[in-house]
Amino acid sequence: LVVDGVLLEDLSLSTATLEVPHGLGRRYRGYLVADLSADARVYRDTSSTSDSSQFLPLKASGTVTAKVWVF
Questions:
Q1: Under a CB-based contact definition with an 8 Å cutoff, are residues 21 and 55 in contact?
Q2: Which tens digit of pLDDT belongs to each residue from 24-65?
Q3: Which of 30, 32, 8, 31 is nearest to 20 (CA)?
């Protein structure tokens, strides 16, 4: 369910992968970008090998501060 999630705020994203700890206690099912400080594309780094039950690997097309709802 989308409502069973957490809002991650003030994420400093760039073209480098940020392994974001989501704290859900399970694998995430998806995410929604809730707010951006600039025009940028935010996406999951599919080449990351991080544990999806703990981290969401995010990248952006440029430097941006984001709020992301993870569920």
A1: yes
A2: 999 999 999 999 999 999 999 999 999 999 999 999 999 999
A3: 8
